[in-house]
């Protein structure tokens, strides 16, 4: 089973703007990180799960990693956002590992994000310890 990671959808105004940014890249979308994850080989074939408003909202499959000339690393992603069942997730800096068991499931065919729990509701229920 591949390993996944989580990252805040920094500067995304909405899940739709994140989707638009990803889809604006014809072959691969690139995320940049200062350090190569130690477990990067396990992450090929896994996904980057996006955090928006303190909730996991979707994922983008990880294709590969490559080093830039300045020493930073590119995370190459498939240019698509696969919606998942909304799951509360606290914000953090950088990225964090996410095991397959802890990852939310993809939304089923015909199921929409509005059928799942909205991010704000998920956050409020998490604050109350209900989810």
UniProtKB/TrEMBL annotation:
InterPro entries registered for this protein in UniProt: UCP032025
Superkingdom as given in the UniProt entry: Bacteria
Pfam families: DUF1489
Descriptive protein name: Lysophospholipase
Source organism of the structure: Novosphingobium resinovorum
């Amino acid at each position: 089973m591949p390993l996944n990671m989580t990252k805040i959808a920094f500067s995304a105004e909405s899940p739709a703007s994140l989707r638009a940014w990803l889809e604006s890249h014809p072959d691969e979308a690139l995320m940049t990180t200062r350090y190569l994850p130690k477990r990067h080989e396990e992450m090929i074939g896994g996904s980057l799960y996006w955090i928006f408003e303190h909730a996991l909202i979707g994922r983008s499959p990880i294709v590969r990693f490559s080093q830039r000339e300045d020493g930073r690393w590119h995370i190459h992603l498939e240019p698509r956002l696969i919606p998942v069942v909304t799951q509360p997730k606290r914000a953090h800096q950088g990225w964090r590992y996410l095991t397959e068991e802890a990852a939310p499931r993809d939304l089923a065919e015909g199921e929409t994000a509005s059928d799942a729990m909205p991010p704000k509701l998920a956050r409020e229920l998490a604050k109350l310890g209900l989810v």
